[in-house]
Amino acid sequence: MKTDDLKYDKSLLTAELFYSAFLSLSEKEKENFFGRLLSNISYKTTAYTSSGKSLTKNQYIKHIEKISKDVKKGNFISHEDMLKDAENE
Asked: Which domain holds residue 53?
């Protein structure tokens, strides 16, 4: 048996043990687990702005909503105008 096979078997065994343990939880414990999991995901970095600032999922959604509102109001620069500005710098 190769080392890679052992790693695969170990991770597969770990996943199976986790799944088995999860199934043994009560419905309330399963709900709590998923609630904590989803809550935790909301606080992790999902995207980055063009300036490199990290954004959580909720911040990213608000960022996109703001951009959409700006575009609807006409607050944007066309691709052609941006290229012209870049040439002049």
From this structure: 45-89
